[in-house]
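Why do we bother with a discrete structure alphabet at all? Because it lets us treat a fold like text: something you can write down, compare, and reason about line by line. To make this less abstract, here is a complete entry for S9 family peptidase. Read it the way you would read a sentence in a foreign language you are learning: slowly, and without expecting to understand everything at once.
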Amino acid sequence: MLPAMRSFRIIIAGFAMLATMPAVASSSSAPPPDALSEVRGKAALSWVDEQNRRTFAGLEADPRYRVFHDSVLRIRQDAHRIPMPTFLGGEIFNFWQDAAHPRGIWRETAPERFVAGHPLWTTRLDVDELARREHRNWVFQGADCLAPDDSPCLIQLSEGGEDATTLREFAPLSGGFTPDGFLLPHSKQTVAWEDRDTLLVARDWGDGPRGVSGGAMTRAGYPFVVRRLHRGQALDSAVEVMRGQRDDVLVAPVALADGEGHRLVLIRRAVTFFEDRYSLVTDGGTRALDLPARMDLHGLLAGRLILSANQDWQSGGVKIPAGSVIAVDPDGRMPVQLLFTPGARQAVDEVAVTGTGVVMTVLDSVRGQGWVYRPDAAGGWHGTRLKLPDMMSVHIMDADRRSGRAFLSVSGFLTPQQLWLADSTDGSARKIMELPPQFDSAGLVVGQEWAVSSDGTRIPYFIVHRADMRSDGSNPTLLTAYGGFQLSSLPDYDPVAGRLWLDRGGVYVVANIRGGGEFGPAWHEAGRMAGRQHVFDDFAAVARDLIARKITVPAHLGIRGRSNGGLLMGVEFTQHPDLWGAVIVGVPLLDMEHFETMAAGASWAGEYGSMAVPEQRTFLERISPLRALRPGVHYPEPFIFTSTLDDRVGPVHARLFAARLQALGVPFLYYEDTEGGHSGTVNASEVARERALEAVYLSRLMDRGH
């Protein structure tokens, strides 16, 4: 589950078509649930087509639609976007999409030219040309490359953006697929290079060699058997190295390398979404490592594993508080070293390892900071805060294993994205690129306020508005949050939201509710399983605080969320239907009684709970938006969107919810994209269409004020 979130645009127009148009539900009945659950079933796709056509007729007919669409398209295809860099083989690589390359090109340039702002790009892989030549709907999902030379690579290609991929061996610096190289056909799969001619592979193996059983996929739909595959060897001859259990989330190989030549190959067994067991692959098999169960592994430095502990842990008399970053000797000969422990209002957000140190981003009251840590002569660690702008979000784009360099992205709600080059060797950081403004921020201000939730906990939220905003409840307001999986909602620059919402005078609010990582593991833990009602109460508390401050009223208040945020929207829609004037429910979980049997849902029992546990079952039944829908309740008309090819959450949640609304006679708008996976649409024109549909839908919040 990854946070994505935020987008839109709305401009002043003299039309009020949606405000005056009668809301109508679909004219025909939906197929039964079993039919809608067949993702590519004829009856289900026929119903999807009917809902799409109805939504298009209602929204694309609005004169504003084309303006919104073209504006988003220009943003997505703007040649002045910062090309996001990756260190690879001593060069800088970038994946780029534009009008001429909607599927994208993978290209490289020299580091010195990139840093100087004058890259000379050489295309190494043209995905559009590959898709045309092979008549496939290829989507580039990245590359896994052999250290230390970063060659060869395994290119990951998916059909239409789903999680399952096809892996093909590729030489990145010569730009060609390797003749008779490794080719791993379509599956959810993970690989690690053991050496140039050997892979460790976790995938759906089907029937094993010599009659050994098993499709080797967990109940969540991910691999749990790792095998060793030699060059030229048939898949069914690969020899098993390790297997987990069918109730695990997944089992996957991991290859790590540092700048000193140390290489480790590990196998990660994800027992739950948050608990891992790591084993070291040795000449004699595998050896379990003594690491905290709840942790995030970031890399290898000077032979030590760098990781974040997401629980209190003790090793050799060293007490490690939850949320700390530590260095661990995989052989256990040297004591654990503590790099950083966050304060009460701090949290470690991202961590990456360079050749000389560790780069991390830290949230302090949800405001981003950059830090570098490097070993000192006394055997400890020395930390330096990078000189970056304040009140920003800071993200690590990539770190170089061959040097101390790392690229950081820095932005704020009103500050366009900047690319910084940091160095863990000397603690320096300098801005090397920045975007020009992509919307008019004159007269806009950013504030941070705090609401009080149902149990007295103070919940922060960011609010972006005009400096002369009236406190009379008349302001169209868009509120968003995520609230799950220890993922944080930060003050990022969003030109689509800027152009299509803020430019028209809308107020934009990002809530830092529990369940996220804004204040570390404890903030997440407070919103996990039955504690998730805190998440829902926090969000409603922010809404009520906005109303109490006379910023908005329910008729002018819209909310939006995707994925886990889509579940949040579904719950708020059913628990507080009177609080919202518009609700956007994106690629959501909505059937919490059956989520464990849908797509990858079984992997999230550690976040939501399980129907197999009686007390958790009671809670899941109570909050499930699908179950909570009732006749006779006045609900706002929602906009629901999903993707047919989403093999992570799947489209069935959204279909069943919309069909239930249809049966109750509740108006709704529904859009199911037939391209793209869980992360959404896969090219600029598809993104533009979905965002423009949202923008027209949200226009009613504006129209009610005119």
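What the structure line is telling us, in plain words: The chain has three domains: 34-75+439-703, 81-187, 332-437. The two ends are 39 Å apart (CA to CA).
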